[in-house]
Amino acid sequence: MRYFSGFCLNTEEALFAEIIGEYSNNPYVVAGFSYGAIKALEYVYESKKRIERLILLSPSFFIGRPASFIKMQRLYFRKDPAAYIGKFVANAAYPADERVLKPFLSTGTLEELEELLTYEWPEEKFDLIAGRGTKIEVFLGGKDKIIDAKAAHAYFKKLAESYFFKEYGHILQEGEG
Questions:
Q1: Staple 17 to which of 6, 21, 79, 105, CB 3.0 to 4.6 Å?
Q2: 170 belongs to a structural domain
Q3: Spatial separation of the C-alpha atoms in residues 89 and 152, rounded to whole Å
Q4: How far apart are the C-alpha atoms of 88 and 146, rounded to whole Å?
Q5: pLDDT in tens, 55-99
Q6: What are phi and psi of 155, to 5 degrees?
Q7: How many domains does the structure of the chain reveal?
Q8: What pTM, to 2 d.p., does this model score?
Q9: Structural domain for 40, as ranges
Q10: pLDDT digits (tens, 9 = 90+) for 20-53
Q11: In angstroms, rounded to a whole number, what is the distance separating the alpha carbons of residues 44 and 13?
């Protein structure tokens, strides 16, 4: 499996073992989490290789957000990247304990943030990928504090198989207790 990591993360695919674990040794599966879902979609779209399945885990979905929201995200990141990433990690982990993400933290860039905030998820790319015979699956959590998961589910269910887990957050895990 080819895996693409989320914003400010690296090698976190173990967090999604329940969803992607069975595909870990399958070279015909591509998966990506959050920002990595963008990279996974683009990789499959550009690829000439056979790909059986594309798995998008909590894809970064900011379609419909006002320009002011995106501008403020950029501003906060530029002002204090460490504080921005700290808040991002807490929100991404919710309702699970944020310590679950600590082993996977990496440095994120303003360019990556910009891409994840402005990516449009073009329908024609989904159509082309599905037309090649690739199964596309999207997994979303109802308690996601990063994206509007209900809006994302409404969008993606037109283009792919979309699964919505009410009690899960952005990292597709429940809270403790």
A1: 21
A2: no
A3: 20
A4: 8
A5: 999 999 999 999 999 999 999 999 999 999 999 999 999 999 999
A6: -70, -50
A7: 1
A8: 0.96
A9: 2-165
A10: 999 999 999 999 999 999 999 999 999 999 999 9
A11: 18
- What is the 3-class SS of the chain, one letter each residue? CEEECCCCECCHHHHHHHHHHHHCCCCCEEEEECHHHHHHHHHHHHCCCCCCEEEEECCCCCCCCCHHHHHHHHHHHHHCHHHHHHHHHHHHHCCCCHHHHHHHECCCCHHHHHHHHHCCCCHHHHHHHHHCCCEEEEEEECCCCCCCHHHHHHHHCCCCEEEEECCCCCCCCCCCC
Contact 122, 44 (CB under 8 A): no
Q: What is the CATH number of the domain that holds 123?
A: 3.40.50.1820
Structural domain includes residue 177: no
Residue 129 lies in a domain: yes
Structure tokens given for 99: 């310590």
Inter-residue contact 62 to 40 (CB < 8 Å): no
Sign for the pseudo-dihedral over CA of 123, 129, 135, 137: negative
Q: Is the dihedral of CA 60, 64, 67, 72 positive or negative?
A: negative
Strand partners, 137: 55, 161
